[in-house]
Design goal:
The complex is a heterodimer of chains A (326) and B (264). Chain A has eleven helices and 13 strands. Chain A is α/β, with parallel strands linked by helices and 326 residues long. In chain A, strand 8 and strand 9 form a beta hairpin. In chain B, strand 1 and strand 2 form a beta hairpin. The chains are: A alpha/beta (326), B mainly alpha (264).
């Protein structure tokens, strides 16, 4: 049974447009030119219980519109959504009791109060029983090392501490489905790692389904088995990361040399990047066999070290964003 | 209803976080009382009249002090909160919460009011009694007044909320918010009783909700109405609250369909 089912979802925004300048600003009061903007052009997918799914896409691709519809905040223009057996925007108040959300860019805790006060508020808002509340809070506070933080006013906390408190806040009521919108924004490397470990643990312990939107592809790589890529309102890829890498059919060979100036290697249809002591060759496996390239290099050149790798996820995604095709 | 109690507690806690900012009014409000006290004293002395527009000097002083008490309790800037939520996309968070927006705003506001009753309104009332000849005319009227003030708070809250909702269409409403304060004081009889204005003005006021904010509760306090009429007035307050609540619900449903929560 899928936990979320989305069929042919569409959202059209109506915004008014005007040219710059004071005169045009006055004109636009009377003559409004409306422009339709299609944020989602028919999106279809299913998500199963216990999955951790990453949603990525360039700015303005329609990610946050999608998330907002799934959270029940926005009414779509057309299409069908069923999440946890609710139509999110129709029974919003009932529906949101079953979901959690972390919005990386928004302050979800009361600024002037310690996080603990907001936790207690949520305990009552969601009707969490005393025992469950205590147990979950204790566990999560311990996992994230927040014992000393939750009693301090939010305004005195660091960005990372606030983010961790926000994730606790979103999980206290045992939601079956949690949306994380740029959850690692502004975090340092260690905090990011902790955060990802924590999400994995919660997913394992409680079987919570997570939907993550992010621009940090490391989040995706560490957390998500499945990734949905959205560009200009459409899903352009839906599947596992490993398959995505396979589909790209590219390999990267990195060679280190003794001399500062790397020798010139001539290869057809390959992108070669040169830097001090180093060469990076990108091979299209449809056109060349890795084996052939390797034997060619080992035969003709002297080098210190050689590594064959998959291309970085960043590079793959950049390519997809730019070409919109896989 | 535990969740509403918790929301009220949060409001009180927020007020406590800014306790010193809060308490300042204990020092500023007596200044306006002093000004009005001596202004009325002079007017009554030089006119040679005992009763002006239906009020004795003693009643007039009490009128102003009780008006200040309502101002401190009923004051609301909820329209600015709504405006902020709309303009900066905070509405998204509000919509993720399993309580209605109106309820969450109302009960947090009630927490603030409870603190305000404790540290502002009651001290001002006591200062009025000790220094400015304020007095309790009758216990029954005091109780009826307290009930009327409660509904007055509800009225101001709903009017402010409605103004706040307009920011879904108008975006920035800081100007409207400033004029709201003045208009509610003026039309509600906050400065002087409505009997000071022309008859036609009073007749129109009968059909508007504003006189129930200050004029009516204060007159209840002063014993200007029979008990029966006082209860009727409270009944009219309730009718206005129901009416404004229905309008607020309808407008909210429209606004939320329009809302796109950009930039989250």
């Amino acid at each position: 049974m899928p936990i979320i089912e989305v069929k042919d979802l569409k959202k059209i925004y109506k915004t008014h447009k005007r040219k710059q300048g004071l005169l045009n600003a006055i004109k636009s009061i009377i003559f409004r030119r409306y422009v339709k903007k299609e944020a989602l052009k028919g999106v279809t997918f299913k998500i199963n219980k216990g999955e951790i799914v990453g949603i990525i896409g360039p700015n303005g691709a329609g990610k946050s519109t999608l998330i907002k519809i799934l959270c029940g905040i926005l009414h779509p223009t057309d299409g069908y959504v069923k999440a946890l057996n609710y139509i999110p925007w129709k029974n919003r108040i009932e529906y949101v009791k079953n979901i959690g959300a972390v919005l990386g860019q928004k302050e979800q805790l009361y600024w002037d109060l310690p996080p603990l006060d907001t936790f207690y508020l949520n305990k009552e808002l969601y009707g969490i029983s005393k025992n469950v509340f205590r147990k979950r809070l204790k566990l999560m506070v311990k996992l994230l090392n927040l014992e000393e933080v939750i009693g301090t006013p939010v305004r005195d906390l660091s960005l990372g501490e606030r983010m961790k408190c926000k994730i606790i806040l979103s999980l206290l009521h045992k939601p079956k489905l949690v949306f994380l919108d740029e959850p690692t924004i502004g975090l340092d490397i260690i905090s990011k790692e902790n955060f990802r470990e924590f999400i994995k643990k919660i997913n394992k312990i409680y079987g919570t389904t997570f939907l993550i939107t992010t621009h940090d592809l490391q989040d995706i790589e560490r957390l998500c088995e499945r990734v949905i890529i959205i560009n200009s309102g459409k899903i352009i890829y839906d599947g596992s990361l490993a398959k995505l890498k396979e589909k790209i059919r590219k390999k990267v060979i990195e060679i280190k040399f003794e001399q500062k100036k790397a020798p010139r290697i001539k290869l057809k249809d390959c992108k070669i990047e040169k830097s001090d002591y180093k060469l990076k060759i990108e091979i299209d496996t449809k056109k060349h066999k890795v084996k052939d390239v390797l034997s060619y290099i080992t035969k003709n050149y002297e080098f210190l070290d050689l590594v064959v790798k998959d291309p970085d996820i960043e590079e793959i995604v950049k390519e997809i964003y730019e070409h919109e095709k896989i | 209803m535990k969740k509403y109690r918790e929301l009220t507690k949060i409001g009180a806690k927020i007020a406590l976080a800014y306790k010193f900012d809060f308490i300042v009014s204990i020092f500023t409000v007596p200044i306006s009382i002093i000004v009005f006290y001596f202004l009325w004293k002079t007017i009554y002395a030089y006119s040679g009249l005992d009763v002006i527009r239906g009020y004795t000097f003693e009643e007039m002083v009490n009128y102003f002090i009780m008006s200040m008490v309502i101002a401190l309790l009923g004051w609301s800037n909820i329209e600015r909160v709504v405006e902020y939520d709309v303009l900066y996309g905070e509405m998204v968070l509000r919509l993720l919460s399993p309580v209605t927006y109106l309820a969450s705003l109302f009960y947090t506001e009630m927490g603030l009011k409870a603190m305000s009753l404790l540290v502002e309104a009651t001290p001002i009332f006591l200062i009025g009694i000790v220094f400015f000849k304020a007095k309790v005319f009758s216990i029954l009227n005091l109780i009826l007044y307290a009930i009327a003030v409660l509904f007055s708070i509800g009225l101001v809250f709903l009017i402010s909320f409605l103004i706040g909702l307009s920011s879904f269409w108008l975006k920035r409403i800081s100007g409207i918010s400033r004029s709201k304060k003045l208009f509610l004081s003026f039309l509600g009889g906050g400065f002087v009783p409505l009997t000071f204005f022309p008859k036609i003005f009073q007749q129109i006021s009968e059909w508007l909700p504003f006189q129930y904010i200050r004029y009516v509760p204060i007159n209840i306090y002063l014993g200007k109405y029979s008990t029966f009429l006082a209860l009727e007035m409270i009944g009219r307050q309730i009718i206005w609250i129901i009416l404004l609540y229905i309008i607020a619900k309808i407008l909210w449903n429209r606004a939320i369909r329009k809302f796109c929560g950009v930039g989250v």
